[in-house]
Write a structure and sequence with these properties.
Blueprint lengths: L8 E7 L8 E7 L17 H14 L2 E7 L1 H7 L1 H14 L7 E5 L10 E4 L7 H24 L5 H4 L5 H10 L10 H9 L4
Parallel strand pairs: 1-4, 4-5
Antiparallel strand pairs: 1-2, 2-3
Length: about 200
C-alpha cells in the first residue's frame, strides 16, 4: 500500500465537447504539493491570458502532466461522450509516474487500470482537476488556431469551433470543412444542403 507521501492523485478534465469542429482534448495532471500553484480554478472562469500563465506554471511545477486527444473521425465513430472518455483515458495512461487514483470532472469515468472517481463540477472543487481543465483548454485552443491556418474562413482562432453566430454564418456561407463534426446538428444540416460531389 502506498504511504500518503507517495499516493499520487491525478485530476482529469476535457475541453471541446460542445464545438462543431475540431478534436476533443483531455489533460491529466498530478500536482506537486511542495510546489503550489496559486489561482487554480475552472478554466472557463479565467481570462485567456491568465489561463496561459497558469498552464505554463502547471507544466513547470506539476509532478506529471499529459494531454490526450480524440480526433474528429473518432468523435464521429464513437459519439462525443465516448470520444471524450477515450481522450481522458489517453491522458491518464500517458502519465509518468502513473497515479494511484484519478479524479475525473463530470459524472462518468473512462476505463482505467487504477481507481477513479467522478466529481460533478470537480474543476471547482479540486485543484488537480482545475489544472487539468486549464491545460486541456489551452492545448485545444492552440490546436484550433493551427487548424484556422488551413481554414481561415471559419474564424476557428476566435471561437475554437463553438456554435457562436460568427461560426454558424460561416458554416452556412462556406459549408463544412473536413474538421467539422458531421454528426453534430448544425453541420449535418449544412451537409444535407450541399449538392452531391
Amino acid at each position: 500500500m502506498p504511504t500518503p507521501a507517495t499516493h499520487l492523485i491525478c485530476g482529469v478534465d476535457e475541453a471541446g465537447r460542445g464545438p462543431l469542429a475540431g478534436p476533443v482534448c483531455a489533460a491529466a495532471v498530478i500536482l506537486d504539493p511542495t510546489r503550489p500553484i496559486p489561482g487554480l480554478k475552472d478554466s472557463k472562469r479565467l481570462s485567456a491570458a491568465k489561463r496561459s500563465l497558469l498552464a505554463e506554471q502547471i507544466r513547470r511545477r506539476a509532478l506529471a502532466w499529459h494531454v490526450g486527444w480524440a480526433s474528429v473521425a473518432e468523435i464521429q465513430r464513437l459519439n462525443i461522450l465516448h470520444a471524450s472518455l477515450l481522450a481522458m483515458r489517453r491522458a491518464v495512461l500517458g502519465l509518468t509516474p502513473p497515479p494511484h487514483l484519478a479524479l475525473v470532472d463530470g459524472n462518468r469515468c473512462p476505463q482505467l487500470p487504477m481507481p477513479a472517481q467522478a466529481l460533478v463540477k470537480g474543476d471547482a472543487l479540486e485543484d488537480c482537476i482545475s489544472a487539468a481543465s486549464i491545460l486541456a483548454k489551452t492545448e485545444r485552443d492552440k490546436e484550433m488556431r493551427r487548424i484556422a491556418d488551413s481554414y481561415p474562413q471559419y474564424g476557428f482562432e476566435r471561437h475554437a469551433g463553438y456554435p457562436v453566430p460568427e461560426h454558424l454564418t460561416a458554416l452556412e456561407t462556406y459549408g463544412p470543412c473536413p474538421e467539422h463534426r458531421a454528426n453534430f446538428g448544425p453541420v449535418k444540416k449544412q451537409m444535407q444542403k450541399q449538392p452531391p460531389g
